[in-house]
Every structure is written in C-alpha cells, then in structure tokens.
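Assess this:
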Amino acid sequence: MCNHMPEFLAKTGYKNPKNNRKTIFDSAFNWEGGAFKYWEEHPVQGEAFNIVQKASTSSQTRWTSIYPSHMLLEGDPQLPLLVDVGGSVGQDVQCFFEKHPETASRLYLEDIPSVIADENSTVAKGINKVPYDFFTPQPIKHARAYYMHHVLHDWPDRQARKILEMQKAAMKPGYSKLLIHDQVMNDDGPVHPHAAGLDIGMMLFGSAQERTEKEWESLITSAGLKIVKIWRVPSAPQGIIEAELASEKSKL
C-alpha cells in the first residue's frame, strides 16, 4: 500500500488527503468506500484486522492506568456506567470490568454487527453487547462515560465531528463524560515515533491523521464540547482527553 502513496499524492497535488472516500488504501486495492467498508465486506481480512487491534491494545498501557476509573463510580447507580464506543472485540471494556467486576450490567460494548458477533471477543458475561454505527444517534442515553479508543484518529475532521455530535446528544448535562483515548501530539517540538508512524498509517487507510493538542481542542470545541483535562502517564505515548458538554458544571 505504501508503494501507491507517491503516485496518489502526485495525482492530488501533494495535498494532505481529506476525503475518506478517496484514500490511498482504495487506490492500492482498487476499491471504493474506505478500509472499514472493505473489511466489513471481506470477513477474513476483517477478522484479521480485529485480531491486530486486540494485540495492539494488549501491548499498550491499560487505559485504567492512565485515567482514574474509580471516579466514574461516583455516579447514579441506576444509569449506564461506561459505553465503549467502537470498542472492537471488547479489550478496553474488559479492562474496566476486571478492575470493577461488580459493574458488568452497566457496561456496554458497541461496534458494527459483524464485529460484535466476532468469536474472538472475550468480554465477560453480563457486559452488554450492542450493534452500533457511531455515525448514528447513540442509543445508550445518560451514561456516566462514553469512551473511544483509536476511533477518531481513523477519520478526517468532518466525520470525526459527526461522531462526537452523535455521542454529545446522548450525554446528560453536568454528568456525562466523554473519554477520548488517542495520540495527543505536541503542538511544538518532537513527536513520539509511535505517533508519527500512526499519523502516516491513518493517512494511508482513511485520509485521517493523529492530532496535536490544539487540533483536538479545535475539533472538540466545534462539536459543542469542552476539554476538562488531558490525562497522561510517562509510560504511554497516548493520552486520554476528558471532555464534557460545553458550559456545564459538574454535578452528580
């Protein structure tokens, strides 16, 4: 696929790709519709992608070691607790469950039907599995947290904004949090090699990108949300952006 990059960029005037329907991936595979559509219609390759996703996540610092997950327990026990949006085979929601096993019935794993049905999913019994397209309205309302790991970096700003807006509409003012687990690159200065490599990869697959702190702020603000804090630890090149509805004060 990388071999197609010079030719593709030459044809497009060496502009940063922004159209997720005309990608370097599409050019390489003589395909239209983007990588995720390809994997959905080619189950063998799609299953391989899910396995890679799980392996990649398992080698990273657990998100519950970056973000103080116990704070999410300080909410209404009658409401959904955590929704793992686009959560693949469930490695991240399982991570939360292992730390807080009593919360299983209030945990939700969401992804497209073919992924939700994947036999490689190892989420614990009791965790809710919901087929969901994150470009459509979020069906789980008023959760304490909506968590997205390596979701938004797959999409250009226009599509990423749409995803955010679909989650925003389900959030309870002053209560719900949005947790974005992704690369947060420095605005100035050196970039972590892992982030730089992923940035090129996202351009190849989806005309997308990794984002700097300022780019994240611009995107999140444009969707009617605001950043509360960016959580980081030295052992992880990624961060977790905690956001909430704009102009709302926290309350339980």
Q: What stands out?
A: Strands lie at 82-84, 107-111, 128-131, 145-149, 177-185, 211-212, 225-231, 238-245. The chain has one domain: 2-245.
